[in-house]
Amino acid sequence: MTLALFSIFAVLMLLRVPIAISLALSTVFVLMQGNFNMNMVPQRLFTSLDSFPLMAIPGFVVAGVLLARGGISKYLIDALRTWVGHLPGGLSVVTVLACMVFAAISGSSPATAAAIGSIMIPAMINAGYDKKYTMGLIAASGTLGILIPPSIPLIIYGITAEESIGKLFMAGVIPGVVLGGILIVSAIYYAKKHGYGKDEKATMAQRTKASIKAIWGAFLPILILGSIYTGVATPTESAVIAVAYAIIVSAFIYRELHWRDLRPILVESINITSMIFLIIAAASLFGLYLTNAQVPQQVGAWIAESNMNKWVFFIIVNILFFVMGAFLEAVSIILITLPILLPIIKHLGIDPIHFAIVMTVNMELAMITPPVGLNLFVVSGIAKEKLEAVVKGVIPFIVLFIFVLALLVIFPQFSLWLPGMMQ
């Protein structure tokens, strides 16, 4: 029956049925074949969304949309440009740093790629950067949106695995900074190799003026992470704080948010949130089937009998995630695989928080892996280029991500040091 479920799911996906609908239909079909009370299906769909921590998702989504439309991201980029624009590959360094700051607010990779890409792609191309490289850099840097906290996939992981979302957020900080640092180093090397130009060095007066203008937006990541880390607010409450702060800054300080902007902001936020919530509801049915069929227990027993060690497990799982990432998006992969993998993680003595970060970096790879990497489509739309051109530009960054993934697997303290400080 499990094989039948995955077969039906694969066929529906090939027919381009939306992921959430494919997952729900295939699960319902399999459940109907047994002695299962179908009245539990609608009940399960609704109860899966009746969760206070899930309210953090629309909060961070709205905050990200406000950043993009309210002028905050624009002023952050202007300030970063005055400080590092004169370095070799200055604009590419600004791009990575801007994505890191935006990631610390939005929790979404496509939102990060869209907000920063809409400004930096034209700027980099006008400055003489190769268009394929520019598109690849934006797509890759945008993935930091789900690693640097807050992160929508980490919220979903925390709810599914019953782990502290605050600790998961802290676990993503150092890996996010390491990945961002490696992207910056690669950008500088690439710029020197190809002789890309740089901005004129800004005066201290220009830097001061731009920094004062951007300081309101730059304070938002500190407000979000500080409120969570100090225990003042839960991640859900910090998301609401972020929205309120972004509205105040955009409407009353920068004065770039108007009543006419309210409807498009709400429509965009509702579209993104609805897609995520529909996938969560559909995946809950899948989880119901797994529980009913005792699939996690059977897989755990198989692992115990096979004497598999954690290194072999990591290799197999990373390959599995890479293959799945080519066809599914991050939320679906987490919700489909995590209920099966959790018993194995516990049996092998792998820290669930460490595994969460390894999984999230794999989800970043999924964002830039063809044919369905979401960031590839976002950048393709912004740059008005074919998807194939974006894929060619992103290939070197896929190699970098695999290198970082290996580092995180081998050295779990990258992920565990900060959460350990919260004990």
> What is the number of helical segments per DSSP (H or I, 4+ residues)?
21
Distance between the termini: 43 Å
What is the number of strand segments?
A: 0
Proportion in β-strands? under 5%
Main β-sheet, in a few words? none
Order of helices and strands: HHHHHHHHHHHHHHHHHHHHH
Describe this structure in words.
The longest helix is centred in the middle third of the chain and has 32 residues. The radius of gyration is 22 Å and the shape is globular. The chain is built from 21 helices and no strands. The termini are far apart. It is mainly α.
Give the tags.
single chain; 423 residues; mainly alpha; 21 helices; 78% helix; globular
List the helices and strands and how they pair.
Blueprint: H1 2-14, H2 19-32, H3 40-47, H4 56-69, H5 72-84, H6 90-106, H7 109-126, H8 131-142, H9 152-161, H10 165-171, H11 173-194, H12 204-229, H13 235-253, H14 262-293, H15 295-306, H16 310-325, H17 330-348, H18 352-367, H19 374-383, H20 387-410, H21 413-421
